């Protein structure tokens, strides 16, 4: 794998764990998705501490869309305003006791307007923009899948992007379990239970296909057509 460049490089050097660029993959008609605009991540701890401001400045990061709940933000959140970052919060909720167990279609059924709002923000806001939850796996995975499918990226590429979190999941879980808040949430789960699999994301992709595809689902739930068209024009080489 080539060394990370663009906004990824300083963030990766600062120890970002589950960080990657949505770009670089091919669409169904062979076009390439541009890099350097949309980044997905777990909790962005790289922005904390005395070196945080320098890391963020060198990355060129402009916007962060936080998919976590208010309670999670109360547990930990970088000082985005002081760092000159436009921080937007759109809490995704799956409609069950917790949002850690795979069942991603629930996000599209329970408060779908929140999912569309997160996608719309990422489509419209200038890059580089980063979106994240706590592990960068479930809520982040849903939004990443919708963005990629809206660009007509094949299911196998979406799946490959999703399962990459498995490579760093032990590190993520260790960090989360250092917080009492996440200890309570994860008390009845295991590393195996949390491991992302093709089946997890496949259920979401199947749900979208049954709804007529990601484009149709997004438009039917309020995404403006002009937003989708401008996003495609900006993101496809």
UniProtKB/TrEMBL annotation:
SUPFAM superfamilies: (Phosphotyrosine protein) phosphatases II
UniProt GO MF annotations: phosphoprotein phosphatase activity
Signal peptide span: none
InterPro entries, per database record: Prot-tyrosine_phosphatase-like (IPR029021), Tyr/Ser_Pase_IphP-type (IPR026893), Tyr_Pase_AS (IPR016130), Tyr_Pase_dom (IPR000387)
Tyrosine specific protein phosphatases domain mapped to chain residues: 113-148
Pfam families named among the record's database cross-references: Y_phosphatase3 (PF13350)
Superkingdom of this protein's organism: Bacteria
Similarity remark: Belongs to the protein-tyrosine phosphatase family.
Name listed for the protein in its UniProt record: Tyrosine-protein phosphatase
């Amino acid at each position: 794998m080539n060394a990370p460049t663009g906004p990824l490089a300083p963030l990766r050097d600062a120890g970002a764990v589950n960080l990657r660029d949505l770009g670089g993959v091919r669409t169904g008609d062979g076009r390439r998705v541009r890099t350097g605009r949309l980044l997905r991540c777990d909790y962005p701890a790289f922005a904390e501490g005395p070196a945080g401001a320098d890391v963020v400045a060198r990355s060129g990061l402009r916007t962060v869309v936080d998919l976590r709940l208010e309670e999670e933000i109360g547990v930990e959140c970088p000082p985005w305003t002081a760092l000159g970052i436009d921080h937007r919060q759109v809490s995704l909720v799956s409609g069950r006791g917790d949002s850690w167990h795979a069942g991603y279609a629930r996000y599209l059924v329970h408060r779908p307007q929140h999912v569309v709002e997160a996608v719309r923000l990422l489509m419209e806001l200038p890059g580089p923009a980063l979106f994240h939850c706590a592990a960068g796996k479930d809520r982040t995975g849903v939004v990443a899948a919708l963005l990629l499918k809206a660009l007509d990226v094949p299911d196998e590429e979406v799946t490959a992007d999703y399962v990459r979190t498995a490579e760093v999941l032990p590190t993520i879980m260790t960090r989360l379990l250092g917080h009492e808040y996440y200890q309570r949430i994860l008390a009845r789960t295991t590393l195996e239970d949390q491991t992302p699999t093709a089946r997890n994301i496949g259920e979401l992709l199947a749900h979208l296909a049954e709804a007529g595809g990601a484009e149709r689902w997004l438009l039917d739930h309020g995404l403006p057509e002009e937003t989708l068209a401008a996003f495609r024009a900006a993101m496809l080489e």
